[in-house]
Amino acid sequence: MGQKSKPSVRKAPVQSRSRMTVDAILQATAHILTRQGYDALTTNHVAGRAGVSVGSLYQYFPNKEALLLALSRRHMNDIEATIDDALAQAPEGQSFPDLVRSMIDAIIAAHLIDPPLHSALSERVPHQGDQDWRVAFDERVRVKVGAILKAHRSDLGVKNIELATYIVVRSVEACVHDAYRHCGPSLRSGDLADEVTRLVVNYLAASGPAGPLNRRRIAPPPLRRRGAGTGAVFGRLATTHRGRSR
Q1: How many CA atoms lie within 13 A of 207 on its CB side?
Q2: Considering the entire predicted model, what is its pTM?
Q3: Cα separation of 172 and 191, whole Å?
Q4: Which residue, 91, 104, 115, 150, is most buried by CB atoms nearer than 10 A?
Q5: Distances (CA, A) of 61 to 55, 102, 172, 196
Q6: What residues contact 194, with CB distance under 8 A and at least 6 apart?
């Protein structure tokens, strides 16, 4: 059985009319994806929404996967440009906590470009392998954040910059991405940025080894006997802890 071909754009638009056609097609793709979902996204549906023939669409996009690849790349470029612009506007010579706040403000601003599209591309679209926009975007953000941390190594208490970069990027991304659904007003008010900044700065400033409890290797939990409820399990844990505390 032959391998499935990777999605790709058939030809890049050169003339202004061609660029307008591609833009209309991608806008239609985003509209259908965010309002009707991944399963409703077909080339016929997109062509109808964009007001072009299916043949015109196929000149640029051979299939649904190619549409999503182009749309996700455009979205990734938009949010990366927003992050770069926000960081470029940060005052020079600011303190490290203020620099962290500028970085988090930039990531929040990027998520506010088109939250429904960002959510749809992140959560509803199947992974596209090594061409997946989420992989490329995470890597680009890690490079930017890693460069900032390395430049301020003397301000940090953490020793492993590469690991710290991973933890910061994943923590901030998880908080900001999830906040749109659960505490959206805090994204615009600055409250979320305040708390995430506190989280990141306190983590990066921490120095010294972790305590003995935190340094233990975490073993998998024992299999629970049939019929043993969570109350019994937590009761045994509490009894064990009290015994150790004596």
Answers
A1: 6
A2: 0.69
A3: 14
A4: 104
A5: 10, 38, 34, 40
A6: none
Residue 199 and residue 168: Cα distance in Å, rounded?
9
Report the SS3 class of residue 80: helix
Q: Mutual orientation of helices 161-182 and 133-151 as an angle, nearest 10°?
A: 120
Which amino acid makes up residue 158? V
Distance set, CA 242 to CA 228, 232, 237, 239 (Å): 21, 15, 9, 5
- DSSP state letter for 130: G
Alpha-carbon span 195 to 183, nearest angstrom: 13
- Residue-by-residue pLDDT tens, the chain, 246 positions: 344 445 555 555 556 788 899 999 999 999 999 999 999 999 999 999 999 999 999 999 999 999 998 998 899 888 888 888 888 887 888 888 998 999 899 888 888 888 889 888 888 777 766 667 777 788 888 998 999 899 899 889 998 999 999 999 999 988 888 887 788 788 888 899 999 999 999 999 875 554 443 444 544 555 545 444 444 444 544 444 445 545
